[in-house]
Each structure stands twice: as structure tokens, then as C-alpha cells.
Specification:
Blueprint (H helix, E strand, L loop, with lengths): L14 H14 L6 E2 L18 E12 L2 E9 L10 E2 L2 E3 L7 H13 L6 E6 L3 E2 L4 E10 L12 E8 H4 L6 E7 L2 E7 L9 H14 L2
Parallel strand pairs: 1-7, 2-8
Antiparallel strand pairs: 2-3, 2-5, 3-4, 3-9, 6-8, 7-8, 10-11
Length: 216
């Protein structure tokens, strides 16, 4: 498949058809492989902190145009949550039995968390599932959000909604490989600090997956 430079698709609205084409190519040629926390930590296995079967989840990588700049929509989770409190995350969550597919789950969660109506999102494609150490098999859904969309964060789950330029996130120079001690072992992860926001862990790993799928 053809390699693309960072300057190919970040002007005007070229990023949307570009991503649709690249995600379709990846699916057609069978190049979409499961990724996850275990890629940087092969000795820990795909579900390092979970003994049961993986739990299915979906997140929305929502991209919206701001002038000539496409931005990725992210959330800052509230500080009182039982898991991942205060962390940066994509809108998303568990796939419910009533959801017909990961797309419906991601859009439902985005509406619940940030008040984004599904009709304001154009589906562009999806990435390979991302396997987390906490036992989730997360399907990232890529969508274009209408420029006039207004976000209304649910205070029970989301402290803030913010945006980061797609070009910043797709630049590998901004993908830091960091590590921490966990249960006597050093665990590695991606981090992409942006101003006062610290993007890391699963969220950064999914961003890295988008880069490797569409822009590498």
C-alpha cells in the first residue's frame, strides 16, 4: 500500500475522503490486525489484569473541521469515577446487548457522554480492535463530526470536552514511549502530552493505531 506524508491530507477537508479510503483499503487487503497494550509489553499478554473472556467496547474517534484544521474530539473524565478517573479518553464504553454493532455503541455512548447526536456523525470506517490490559476488546470507530455540532458534557462522566489537531496526533514525533513500574515489571505505553492535557495509555495507543493504519 502507498505511504503518505503528513502534509498530504491536512488542508481543507481532504482528510475525510482520505481516511475513508485508507480504512477501506486496510479492511480490503486484510491488514487490520488486533493491537493493544501488549504490543509494547509482549511478556504481559493481551489482558494482563483480567482473567475472564474479553469484554466488548467501542469508542468514537470523532474528527471535526475548524477552519482549515481537522481536530480530534477528546474528553477529560471526571475525577470521581471508579476507573480511569480524570484521564483523557475518547467518548465510548461497553457494547450493550441492545447495540446492533460497535458503530451503534460508539454513537450511543458519545450521545450519552457529550450530547453528540448520531445524525451529526458521518461514519468513515473503523480500526482493528484494541486489546486492553484491563480486559476490554475496544473497537475504535472513526467518524467525521459536523462543524456546527455543539457538545454538552454529561457531568456524571465527563469533566470537559476538548480538541487536538489531527496533524499533531498523527505526527510520530509527538508519540512518546514512556514506562512505569507495575507489579514488579516495567510497563511501557504511549503518551502524547498536548499543553495541559496528558494523553496516554489506551487513548494514546488507539491514536497510535490510527497513525499506523492510515498515515505510516
Amino acid at each position: 500500500m502507498t505511504a503518505y506524508s503528513l502534509n498530504d491530507t491536512f488542508a481543507t477537508a481532504d482528510w475525510s475522503p482520505f481516511l475513508r479510503r485508507r480504512l477501506a483499503e486496510t479492511a480490503r487487503f486484510g491488514e487490520a490486525r488486533e493491537t493493544g497494550d501488549h504490543i509494547l509489553n509482549p511478556d504481559l499478554g493481551p489482558y494482563a489484569k483480567w482473567d475472564g473472556p474479553p469484554r466488548d467496547a467501542a469508542v468514537l474517534i470523532g474528527i471535526t473541521q475548524r477552519g482549515d484544521v481537522p481536530n480530534v474530539v477528546l474528553t477529560q473524565r471526571t475525577g470521581h469515577l471508579k476507573s480511569h478517573a480524570g484521564q483523557v479518553a475518547f467518548p465510548g464504553g461497553k457494547i450493550d446487548p441492545t447495540d446492533k454493532d460497535p458503530v451503534e455503541a460508539a454513537l450511543r455512548e458519545a450521545e450519552e457522554e457529550i450530547g453528540l447526536s448520531p445524525v451529526q456523525v458521518e461514519f468513515l470506517g473503523q480500526l482493528a480492535p484494541y486489546l486492553t490490559g484491563s480486559g476490554y476488546r475496544v473497537v475504535p470507530i472513526v467518524g467525521a463530526i459536523r462543524e456546527d455540532a455543539v457538545f454538552h458534557p454529561n457531568p456524571g462522566e465527563v469533566e470537559d470536552v476538548f480538541e487536538v489537531p489531527l496533524q499533531f496526533l498523527m505526527n510520530p514525533a509527538n508519540h512518546q514511549k514512556q514506562s512505569r513500574e507495575w507489579q514488579g515489571s516495567r510497563r511501557y505505553f504511549y503518551a502524547m502530552p498536548f499543553g495541559e492535557r496528558y494523553i496516554w495509555g489506551v487513548t494514546a495507543g488507539i491514536i497510535r493505531s490510527l497513525y499506523e493504519t492510515a498515515y505510516r
